[in-house]
Specification:
CATH class of the largest domain: Alpha Beta
CATH topology of the largest domain: Rossmann fold
Order of helices and strands: EHEHEHEHHEHEHEHHEH
Strand order of the largest sheet: 2-1-3-4
CATH architecture of the largest domain: 3-Layer(aba) Sandwich
Shape: elongated
Strand content: 5-15%
Helix content: 40-55%
Radius of gyration: 23 Å
């Protein structure tokens, strides 16, 4: 198993995201991951470099490091550690410097600063809206929604809604289609005024059976027959009502959310 380290002077989210995308191209390899955020002083960098050296000396392979350290003083000890360091800033800054004809400001935290207060507040508002309108909890303000996700229970409505709010600043409500809803033909009546904001989710019945069985084993709710019935019925409803939908079985939350934004023509709000 190969040790992989994500390091940053801030949250390390960028390093993790880029690192996972790159490592995902290598199937069959197993990785032991460590994340080191807020390495923002030379002393912290030296301490981490010592750990990397020990890891290489005691392990079969040298560690792989994905770094977004902006400060040369903290970057240097990591580069001297002997690990394979993939410097995600240095990879691109050289080309941008040449293209723009300007030197970058090596400012700690610049990549995660709040550059537009109104956009940031809009994201917080979207998150609050999404939390308040999760799982059909409040259906009174759907006219304020950017998108309303539909789906039977356990089809990733909540995580997708939260991702849309957090990453796209979209007010995303979600409503669970129940077996009772499926007994009647067509869309639930109260959703009809918002038809142009609806987007459906389905998943493979076998996968749904597996997920539900972990939550409520040996129940009718989790039975394979019930899962097949609900997916068949809700997909038929989407088609009859001309509601766009996606099968999320093999998709990550990020992929589901991006597909929804693209197919619905929603505008990603900046922040």
């Amino acid at each position: 198993m190969r040790t992989v380290v994500f390091v940053s002077n801030r949250t390390a989210i960028t390093a993790e995201t880029m690192g996972h995308s790159l490592l995902g191209q290598f199937e069959g390899h197993r990785f032991s991951e460590q994340t080191h955020p807020y390495v923002d002083t030379p002393e912290k960098a030296e301490a981490l470099a010592d750990k990397l050296r020990v890891s290489w000396e005691t392990g079969e392979h040298r560690p792989i490091v994905f770094s977004t350290l902006a400060d040369p003083a903290t970057r240097e000890p990591i580069l001297r550690s002997g690990a394979l360091v993939i410097d995600l800033f240095e990879c691109f800054l050289g080309d941008l410097t040449g293209e723009l004809g300007a030197e970058p400001h090596q400012t700690t935290g610049r990549s995660h600063r709040i550059s537009d207060l109104s956009s940031y507040e809009g994201r917080i508002e979207a998150i609050n809206y999404t939390l308040a309108h999760d799982d059909g909890a409040d259906i009174r303000h759907y006219d304020h929604a950017d998108v309303i996700l539909l789906g039977v229970s356990r089809t990733a409505k909540t995580p997708t809604s939260l991702y849309l709010a957090l990453q796209f600043s979209l007010r995303a409500a979600n409503y669970p289609i129940t077996p009772e809803d499926l007994e009647y033909e067509g869309l639930p009546k109260f959703l009809r005024p918002y038809r142009n904001r609806l987007f459906g989710l389905i998943t493979d019945p076998d996968r749904l059976h597996q997920i539900r069985s972990q939550r409520r084993p040996d129940s009718r709710y989790a039975s394979l027959d019930q899962c097949h019935y609900e997916i068949r019925q809700v997909e038929a409803m989407y088609m009859a009502e001309r509601i766009p939908y996606v099968n999320s079985t093999l998709m990550s939350v990020e992929e589901i959310a991006t597909t929804i934004v693209q197919r619905s023509g929603l505008r990603r709000h900046g922040f």
